[in-house]
Design a protein that fits this description.
The structure holds 2 protein chains of 2 kinds. By secondary structure, chain A is mainly alpha-helical. Chain A is 70% helix and 6% strand. Chain A is globular and about 80 Å long.
């Protein structure tokens, strides 16, 4: 549980909060960049200047959001070193590589070219500028790919092996890390969710213009671009979300059981709990409403495979913790004397449970000699808190369904040419703008909180990953980051609102209503 | 290529990325530092910001790419340096927070108060990173207070502040990056701003050289380390597998042993002066080549002085990290080498293209005419 003078909890809060804050800005960057590419392609192909204005106007909003993404992203890269030093040592040999490639391949491209997107309109040909926009979009999406390869490895650590001599995990199969099935699915699910957020942002803001009959031509065209893109995106989010659930069921049984609040192993196919009140201490779910067979079918795609319940998983964890203790004892002996054949044999037998031994880090000075009380505590720690996972998962899925209906209705009315005559739909779209963000944050919460107590599933627990800092250092950084971040967020939202209210007139092209030149005279 | 050579190559690559960052981002940090010095009006300040407008973001990415590469190639160095320097690196972060938003938000509203506060943020955003980089070099030379236990967990001790050295390092960084920024602005602007920069350069170059020399003097008084005993350099090593003792010539041992290396600090001493001379003669391009070269020479001087150490420990000299025992496994180093060898030429290629497209001078007239589409 969280205590406020404990470096592990404070480091967790700091990383979790800064990561979730960072992801307020990433979805819009991921999706809006492609919407800019579509709009600018229309400009290059048709030569109609309105598409250039569409690109530049949404580009302005893209810029205001983009810089917040850059600002908050650096914090995350730094924190692996500042706050998670043992993690960096223990898995840097594998985890560092996708992070480095993200910097060298993706972020480099995005950052170097984004300046030309804003300042290159008069210096580049139309085709060259479109190329720059496309490369910025490619860069930001590649960035997500490498980050999710890194994150996918934390969920499903393939292609690596512990080296007793260097006391760390080392890369043995780079192809396995790159082609990690968890990473692939997560990548598409995550970027598509970003596309949904950006599409709804453009559609919602355009709806606001349409409701006020402001810049109707401009708003309708923006709406049309976002609506097709968004409908395709929400469909992929849902399909890939299902795939993601399936993959996670294969490799992260604890996460799956916790999301479903499945305490007991049910006979296959297991039922799906639609609603309920999970109770961690009593290990049961009160007032559960269940749909028979559904979960077994989703999670195993079969009728005869079981979904293991949390109680049984805990029993398995206890066995693995005890085996991990033997692994640690053998490791100590092996490091003292490399030629100790007996220790080597014991270590080889139990090495897969080395990480489970590390679950004892907070409770035992010497892991190999932990007492029964410590083992019992470590077993309790070996599953995450169920209720927050249960609820955030349902929140995410519920919003996904609502968004599917909303995008469907919007697309239909648009095709029928009845959009402007549907004020209720337009209002609904405008007020739904925050929904994708809520779903995305809930989704990340499920992914990361559901991996607890591990930073690297089955390999390295959170409690063993931190830098051994002083609580005072953590309080200093937490408070300072909180103050700076909240001020910047207020400023960012204020500027977004300012530019949105001015509309395309903010481009000062002389083509839109209500333009005010800098010397104060109306156009 | 054997593991030993690979480790050596990686020392060069990490250095290349760090030097690349300082040379590239150095001039836009310098422009930020010069903001209150050489720009008197709002329009002039916008000339400064827009002179780096299209390129500063691409310069700063060298830090992100460099830190990521450090993580992959030298995980222990990354872990120990970032966590031991927790508070200074937080200040570095806070400085970096202010830059992207400062550049983009400042000119979005015409309100003078709004702009004045963002100007302050931009100056802070240049000042904090510059000071932290300077201080980090000082702390490296002093050694950081960390040690490893048998599981390679890092433990920390109290800092011992050698203020003359730290202040000299921070002062050198400030003078050098301001000089670099002034050289850049002479290339990218004309008229009164360029003239003011040339005037600033007159004292910045000599100051950077003098402080660098003073740093050398402090260094000659300090203890330095040498490896007394270490395992086979061609094998996987941990920092627990060596013995470190104090070196008779301190950190100057490498220069004493190979006198030809004195050429590097000599360049560090002379290039800032050359940059000043070039600005005085109106040779802006030579001035920026010289100030960029000075950044590289000074950083190389530190790297050579420490070699083969990269992160000395003041708490337990034997826990110091060297290029031999702070690295990733052979496989990871090899893969990362391939990645850098393929990607960096591409990155440099499009970076050059961006600079080519963004060529030409920025002026107050341009700010007046195209104000709404500029920073």
């Amino acid at each position: 549980m969280i205590s406020l003078d404990d470096v592990v909890s404070l480091s967790r809060i700091q990383f979790g909060a800064t990561a979730m804050f960072h992801f307020l800005f990433v979805p819009l960057t991921l999706g809006l960049s492609w919407i800019l590419v579509i709009a600018e392609s229309a400009y290059v192909m048709t030569g109609k200047v309105i598409y250039k204005d569409i690109t530049r106007f949404w580009g302005k909003l893209f810029g205001i959001n983009f810089v917040m993404g850059v600002t908050t992203g650096i914090t995350l890269e730094f924190q692996f070193g500042t706050n998670w030093a043992y993690y960096s040592h223990y898995v840097g040999d594998i985890f560092g590589t996708p992070l480095a490639v993200e910097g060298l391949m993706a972020f480099f491209l995005e950052s170097t070219l984004v300046g030309l997107f804003f300042f290159g309109w008069d210096k580049l040909s139309r085709g060259q500028h479109l190329l720059v926009t496309a490369l910025v979009a490619l860069g930001s999406n590649l960035s997500a790919l490498w980050i999710l390869i890194a994150n996918g490895w934390m969920q499903n650590p393939v292609g690596a092996e512990f080296n007793p001599m260097t006391m760390r995990m080392e890369l043995v199969d780079v192809a396995a890390v790159l082609l990690n099935p968890v990473a692939q699915v997560k990548f598409v699910h995550t970027v598509a969710a970003g596309y949904v957020a950006a599409s709804l942002f453009v559609m919602g803001v355009s709806s606001w213009y349409l409701l006020r009959r402001m810049e109707v031509r401009f708003a309708l065209r923006s709406f049309a671009i976002a609506s097709g893109f968004g409908l395709a995106a929400i469909l992929s989010v849902i399909v890939l979300g299902d795939e993601s659930g399936y993959r996670s069921g294969e490799v992260q049984k604890v996460k799956l059981a916790a999301i479903e609040a499945e305490w007991e192993t049910e006979p296959a196919p297991a039922s799906f709990t639609l609603f309920g009140l999970p109770d961690q201490s009593a290990e049961t779910t009160h007032a559960a409403i269940k749909i028979p067979y559904l979960m077994g079918i989703i999670a195993t795609r079969s009728l005869d495979e079981q979904v293991t319940g949390l109680k049984d998983l805990k029993a398995q964890h206890e066995v693995r913790i005890r085996s991990g203790m033997l692994a640690h004892e053998a490791l100590e002996a092996l490091r003292a004397d490399d030629s100790n054949a007996e220790a080597r044999a014991t270590f080889e037998r139990h090495r897969a449970d080395l990480g489970y031994g590390l679950l004892l880090t907070p409770y035992a000075k010497e892991i190999g000699k932990a007492d029964e009380g410590a083992i019992a505590k470590a077993v309790e720690d070996s599953i995450p808190q169920v209720a927050p996972l249960f609820w955030s998962f349902r929140l995410m899925v519920g919003i996904g369904v609502v968004l599917l209906l909303l995008f469907g209705a919007a697309f239909l009315q648009l095709c029928r040419g009845r959009l402007v005559q549907s004020p209720r739909l337009l209002k609904a779209l405008f007020w739904s703008i925050p929904l994708p963000w809520i779903a995305i944050e809930a989704g990340w919460f499920v992914a990361e909180f559901g991996r607890q107590p591990w930073t690297i599933s089955d390999v390295l627990p959170v409690s063993a990953s931190v830098s051994l800092l002083q609580p005072g250092q953590l309080w200093f950084s937490l408070i300072a980051i909180f103050l700076i971040y909240s001020s910047l967020l207020v400023v960012e939202l204020f500027l977004l609102r300012h530019v949105i209210r001015k509309g395309p007139a903010s481009l000062q092209t002389g083509r839109y209503q209500g333009e005010v030149l800098q010397n104060g005279s109306l156009v | 290529m054997d593991y030993e050579t690979l480790k050596l190559v990686w020392w060069g690559l990490v250095l290349f990325l760090l030097v690349g960052f300082v040379v590239m981002d150095g001039f836009d940090l310098g422009v930020g530092l010069l903001l209150p010095v050489v720009a008197k009006s709002d329009e002039e300040r916008r000339v400064l910001l827009n002179s780096v407008g299209p390129v500063w973001e691409g310069n700063q990415v060298w830090l992100i790419a460099g830190a990521g590469t450090l993580f992959a190639a030298w995980p222990l160095v990354y872990a120990a340096a970032f966590s031991a320097l927790y508070v200074p690196f937080m200040f570095l972060l806070f400085g970096l927070f202010l830059r992207p938003v400062g550049f983009d938000y400042r000119s979005k509203l015409p309100d003078p108060l709004w702009r004045r506060w963002w100007d302050r943020a931009l100056v802070t955003g240049a000042l904090l990173p510059t000071l932290v980089f300077g201080a980090t070099i000082g702390f490296l030379l002093q050694g950081l207070p960390f040690r490893f236990d048998s599981a390679l967990r890092i433990h920390y001790g109290a800092f011992d502040f050698n203020w003359p050295l730290l202040l000299t390092c921070m002062g050198t960084a400030l003078a050098l990056l301001m000089l670099h920024g002034a050289s850049f602005l002479q290339c990218k602007t004309q008229g009164v701003i360029a003239e003011r920069c040339a005037r600033q350069s007159l004292w910045l170059g000599p100051l950077a050289s003098a402080l660098f020399a003073l740093g050398g003097l402090w260094l000659s008084q300090m203890r330095g380390y040498r490896i007394a005993e270490i395992g086979d350099l061609n094998s996987a090593l941990t920092p627990l597998m060596k013995q470190v003792t104090t070196a008779p010539d301190g950190w100057l041992g490498n220069f004493v042993a190979h006198p030809v290396l004195w050429a590097v600090p000599a360049l560090g001493l002379l290039l800032p002066l050359l940059s000043t001379l070039a600005s005085h003669l109106g040779l802006a391009r030579l001035a920026i080549l010289a100030s960029g070269g000075a950044c590289a020479a000074m950083m190389l001087t530190v790297a050579i002085a420490l070699f083969p150490f990269v992160l000395p420990s003041s708490l337990d000299p034997s826990s110091s990290l060297t290029l031999w025992d702070g690295t990733s496994s052979e496989g990871t180093l090899l893969i990362m080498l391939g990645i850098v060898a393929v990607l960096m030429p591409i990155n440099l290629g499009y970076t050059l293209w961006v600079y080519w497209v963004a060529r030409g001078k920025m002026s107050t007239e341009q700010v007046r005419q195209q104000g709404h589409s500029l920073y």
